[in-house]
Every structure is written in structure tokens, then in C-alpha cells.
Amino acid sequence: MNTLELLRADRVLTVVRAPEISDARDLCAALVAGGIHVVELTYTTPDLPRHLERAASTAAETGAVVGAGTVQTADQATQAINAGAQFLVTPGQGLEAAAIADAARAAGIPVVLGAFTPSEVMTALALGSTAVKIFPAHHLGPKYFKDLNGPFPGVPLIPSGGVNATNAHDFLAAGALAVSAGTDVVSPADVAAANWSSITTKAKTFCAAL
């Protein structure tokens, strides 16, 4: 099952934003135990390639599909791919968006470019984005996804930013492919303290809300 099919089945991925990760393997295992298989480790965490390597090298063990998020340069894309990232996600579309998309295509992995406006969705699709991340989604809410489905029927859209267990189902009902779960599931404090049981419980609660 490829990443897009897994997202369509699970309807959720989790975005990890933490100042430190005590063990990326245990983090991924905790999330999978809670029902979330697609894990996005981000460049806001120092020394991300090392954590990606740890997560990717143990993916067969944990069952996680691990990618890199907040990718803003072609160099970061290459680093992440070399560390074993199975997909790339950008927060938006800077000057290097095309180069990031090209790097993902060359490596044979999906890329999810960030967008907010219809024009940016069109640009992301033109650059070969596998799916399009709408960020920050909470500003316009689920109705915006219904509106986007008019000109972009069938385009895989993923809301990110402000998505929680209360509103996640509404985004899916409005046509989103899947939703991004953030600190609602993976709090920086839990990650730093290696509080894996708490993360598993929160993941289960989030998945149940879907």
C-alpha cells in the first residue's frame, strides 16, 4: 500500500513538532499502536536527519511510514531522502518548491506541497504534488474544503493547522483526503519525556473521533 492509499485508509497522519525526540523508533511504535501509521517528523526538530534515519531503519518493525515535514529547501529534501524519508511535506511554496518536488520525483517518493489559496493549489498540482496540504486550515474551516472541491474535484487535500479531535471529522466530511493531527496527539512534553503510553492513548482518541 503506497502512502496515498494508506492516508485514504487511515484518514490521518501525525505531524511531530518537538524540540527534541528521545527515540524516534519508540515514538513511531506508540503512534502505530494508537492507529496512526503515517508520521511526519519536521525540520523544526534539531538534527532531523538523525531521527529520520532511526525511524526509517526501524519502519519494518514499527509499521510506520515516516516522512519529513517543513521542508523548505532542495538541500533539506536531499538530506531527508538520504536519511530514508518516505515522503516530503512543505509548509508552502517558496522559490525552491519546484526543486523539492523534483527531488521527491527522482527518489520515487510522494511530495505534499503546502497551499492556502486556489492559485497555490493550482501551482502545487502543476509542480506534481501528490496531494496538497492546506495550511493553516483552521482559519477558513471545513466549509473551505467544500468550496475547493468545486474547481478541484478529486484532488487529495489535507488540512493542517488547528485540526483536532473535535473538528477532524468535519474536515473529512467536507471532502478532505485525510487530516493532520498535531500537538493534540503528539505534545512536545510527551515526546521529550518519552511518555509513549500517553501518545498512544491520544492517538486512539483522535482516531475514534474520525
Could you characterize the architecture of this molecule?
The chain is of the alpha/beta class and 210 residues long. The chain has a single domain, classed as TIM Barrel, CATH 3.20.20.70. Helix content is 45%, strand content 15%. It has 11 helices and 8 strands. It has helices at residues 3-10, 24-33, 48-57, 59-62, 74-82, 97-107, 118-126, 141-149, 168-173, 188-192, 196-209, and strands at 12-16, 38-42, 65-69, 88-89, 111-115, 131-134, 157-159, 179-181. A 4-stranded parallel β-sheet has the order 3-2-1-8. The protein starts with a helix and ends with a helix. The model has no long low-confidence stretch (mean pLDDT 96).
Strands, helices and their partners?
Layout: H1 3-10, E1 12-16, H2 24-33, E2 38-42, H3 48-57, H4 59-62, E3 65-69, H5 74-82, E4 88-89, H6 97-107, E5 111-115, H7 118-126, E6 131-134, H8 141-149, E7 157-159, H9 168-173, E8 179-181, H10 188-192, H11 196-209
Parallel strand pairs: 1-2, 1-8, 2-3, 4-5, 5-6, 6-7
Descriptive keywords:
210 residues; alpha/beta; TIM Barrel; 4-stranded parallel beta sheet
List the uncertain runs: none
Number of domains: 1
Sheet with the most strands, sense and barrel status:
4 strands, parallel
Radius of gyration: 16 Å
Q: Give the H and E element order.
A: HEHEHHEHEHEHEHEHEHH
Number of separate helices: 11
Strand order of the largest sheet: 3-2-1-8
Q: Report the CATH topology name.
A: TIM Barrel
Task: Give the integer mean of the pLDDT values.
Answer: 96
The first-to-last residue Cα distance is: 21 Å
CATH class assignment: Alpha Beta
Give the strand tally.
8
Structural classification: alpha/beta
CATH architecture: Alpha-Beta Barrel
What fraction strand?
A: 15-25%
**Shape descriptor:** globular
GO molecular function, one term: lyase activity
Pathway: Carbohydrate acid metabolism
Family: Belongs to the KHG/KDPG aldolase family.
Keywords: Carbohydrate metabolism, Lyase
